[in-house]
Write a structure and sequence with these properties.
Distance between the termini: 25 Å
CATH topology: TIM Barrel
CATH superfamily: Glycoside hydrolase/deacetylase
Number of domains: 1
Strand content: 5-15%
Helix content: 25-40%
Strand order of the largest sheet: 5-6-10-9-14
Largest sheet: 5 strands, mixed
Structural class: alpha/beta
């Protein structure tokens, strides 16, 4: 099962960078969301594939027409928080207020229930698992925040599996669609989204996708935008991860979606027998 998702944010919503951290700083950058959304819609139309969209509440407030267009096209919309902050830098109340604001904003614009969530940077970690309780309390049914291996923003290696599963914590339960991994010599490799997707040659991407039973993609509008400005304050390493592979990313994505069958989360949710999946107690 291959699942296609997009995290809808601006090109300057880069985490762990002081010059792009706050709303006040965001006003220093041009908006590119409309041209990048048109690019995404064009790709989906060309290959006739459905996708799920995790949208920032901030984007919805600034550009409600983006949310209306996603909804008009029949794509399901989930929350990507409101202000795109790392979850582990917030306390429980701050996180709850932020996600609640995003849900209400998305629902007011789309007229549809928001039941999915993905944390910025997959920043629900071993230290802030209380976030799953908050999501449940806010009516979220499906989560895709688990990064089941180590990463710069923490990850959750203890989750143990990289496949659709039932996440249980303190008496609550969520349907979890974690990011997939590929094992090479005992090491878990990520390849299905963001910088990983852009940096890995297509021949390798094709080979790993063919071997894996479950792929959860996570792409951003900026991943397909080769003309975006460069944020000069980024380190050389971050510039490499953020900008290399942009020119070929759209072509690579179109090939990927043509060579393999992809579905959205709504379709996957219907096809999965949730009574037979593994339960993960945190």
């Amino acid at each position: 099962m291959n699942i296609l998702t997009f995290d809808i944010e601006e090109w300057f919503h880069i985490l762990d960078n002081d010059s792009t951290k706050t709303e006040k700083q965001w006003s220093n950058y041009e908006s590119r969301i409309h041209r990048n959304m048109e690019r995404i819609f064009s790709v989906l139309d060309n290959v006739n594939v459905r996708a799920s969209f995790f949208v920032l509440g901030w984007i919805a407030e600034k550009h409600p027409e983006v949310v209306r267009e996603i909804s008009k096209r029949g794509y399901e919309i989930g929350s990507h928080t409101h202000m795109h902050q790392l979850v582990y830098e917030q306390n429980r109340e701050e996180f709850s207020q932020d996600v609640d604001r995003s849900i209400k904003t998305l629902e007011d614009i789309s007229g549809k229930k928001t039941r999915m969530f993905r944390a910025p940077g997959f920043s629900i970690t071993e230290q802030n698992k209380w976030a799953f309780e908050v999501l449940y309390e806010l009516g979220i049914e499906i989560d895709s925040s688990v990064f089941p291996t180590g990463r710069a923003h923490g990850g959750m290696p203890s989750y143990g599996i990289a496949e659709p599963s039932l996440l249980e914590y303190n008496g609550i339960q969520l349907k979890e669609f974690p990011i997939n991994t590929h094992s090479i010599m005992g090491k878990s490799i990520i390849y299905s989204g963001g910088g990983y997707f852009r940096l890995i040659p297509y021949s390798q991407l094709e080979k790993w996708t063919a071997k894996d039973d479950y792929v959860m993609s996570y792409l951003h509008p900026r991943d397909l935008d080769p003309d975006q400005p460069m944020i000069k304050e980024l380190s050389l390493q971050r510039k490499f991860k953020s900008y290399v592979g942009l020119k070929s990313a759209q072509y690579k994505l179109e090939n990927w979606l043509t060579d393999f069958d992809f579905v959205d989360i709504a379709t996957a949710n219907q096809e999965i027998d949730w009574n037979s999946v593994k339960k993960v107690r945190l």
